[in-house]
Amino acid sequence: MAVVLVLRARGLGDLLTAVPALRALRRARPDDHITLAASPRLKPIVDLIVSVDEMVPITEPLGLRWDGEVPALAVNLDGTEGLVELLKTRPERILTYRNPAFPELPGPEWQPDMHDVDRWCHLLESDGIAADRRNLGLVPPVAVTSHRDCVVVHIGAGAPARRWPPDRFAAVVRHLLVQGREVVLTGDETEREIALGVAARAGLSSARVLAGQQNLIELAATVAEAALVVSGDTGVAHLATAFGTRTVLLFGPTAPSLGGPPPHLLGRHAVLWAGQIGDPDAATPDPGLLKIGVPEVLNAIDKQLRKRPLPGTGMDRRTQTYRRVG
Predict the structure, then answer these.
(1) CB-CB contact of 125 with 20 (8 Å)
(2) CA 14/CA 45 separation, integer angstroms
(3) Cβ distance 35 to 66 under 8 Å?
(4) Are 71 and 54 in contact (CB under 8 A)?
(5) How many Å apart are CA 228 and CA 209, to the nearest integer?
(6) Could you tell me if 277 and 255 are in contact, meaning their C-beta atoms sit under 8 angstroms apart?
(7) pLDDT on residue 10
(8) Are 89 and 64 in contact (CB under 8 A)?
(9) Strand order in 73-76's β-sheet?
């Protein structure tokens, strides 16, 4: 049995954009042992993909400890650092985008304006492996504590540049409470105090603050059961796409065409973006993100929540909306 080693050494959202590529690889090599090198905290979500035989942890800073047999194929779903780590395993063959640091390695040219889902599918297609970009869905995990039909307001993001201000989130929560909606606030353990502050401003019980209280699989179950997810450009937005949960998503400083819900999917997504690119590594919220005001968000939320199943079908009207704000 040949070993295929795939490296995707980034966060939750990055992993989920690679799901169609991982599934394509599984279909193309059904008898091989596919090993994914990724952050160990993502293991519960990797199990939902059902295309990987084994996971090996990537440490921080990026490092791969490999003591398995020489891979017949190594697949780099990452950048230069990932390529360096894969080359250390001395694979028989490597599939990667062209990299000026390794001019001897073949591969397609990197296209910076390509959506991440397209990027990894295109890489496999360059090697003759057919990939279905629509194959993003995950089977929802079973919730231990159900929050069915709540509105999930995810107040955090992986970088300050992508964090919409807490006072604006509080205004959103107040609006939802006036409408009689059940609301929960999510985020990681570092964002719990922010979430508690949002709840206090909005008049939401602290018992509805789930930030820092859930593991990844519990968060995934909450997103899967939600009536709506309101979020910035973060991993929770990708979870909502994977589970078919409708969303209102606030983008900046990165364009939604690069990392938002893929437009070819019949999704349930209203994406707000000011139309300007910013610095993703900035220490403060992106100016473009700040151009998205509370009224625009409330309008998008109301439109999403007015949608109802089609009579007699039990299926939702699925619309994909990209709105430019300003």
Answers:
(1) no
(2) 12
(3) no
(4) no
(5) 16
(6) yes
(7) 87
(8) yes
(9) 63-64, 54-59, 33-38, 3-7, 73-76, 94-95
What amino acid occupies position 294? V
Amino acid occupying residue 320: Q
* pLDDT tens-digit map of 275-300: 999 999 999 999 999 999 999 999 99
pLDDT, mean of residues 252-278: 88
Q: What is the pLDDT of residues 136-193, one digit of tens each?
A: 999 999 888 999 999 999 999 999 999 999 999 999 999 999 999 999 999 999 999 9
Task: Give the pair of three-digit tokens for residue 281.
Answer: 């590594």
Residue type at 145? T
Long-range contacts of 27-32 (CB under 8 A, 24+ apart): 27/130, 28/124, 28/129, 28/130, 29/2, 29/4, 29/73, 31/1, 31/2, 32/1, 32/2, 32/3, 32/4, 32/72, 32/73
In whole angstroms, what is the distance from residue 31 CA to residue 283 CA?
46
- Using CA atoms, how far apart are residues 127 and 250, in angstroms rounded to an integer? 35
Burial 188-220 (b: 16+ CB within 10 A, else e): beebbebbbbbbeebebeeebbbbbebebbbbb
Strands (E), the chain: 3-7, 33-38, 54-59, 63-64, 73-76, 94-95, 151-154, 183-186, 228-232, 247-251, 269-273, 320-324
Which residues are CB-contacts of 79 (< 8 A; sequence separation ≥ 6)? none
Provide the greatest CA pair distance for the chain. 62
pLDDT digits (tens, 9 = 90+) for 90-104: 999 999 999 999 999
Q: Single out the residue of 281, 277, 289, 287 nearest to residue 113, CA to CA.
A: 277
Q: Distance between CA 55 and CA 101 in Å, rounded?
A: 27
What is the model's pLDDT at position 246?
Answer: 94
Is residue 109 within 8 Å of 98, Cβ to Cβ? yes
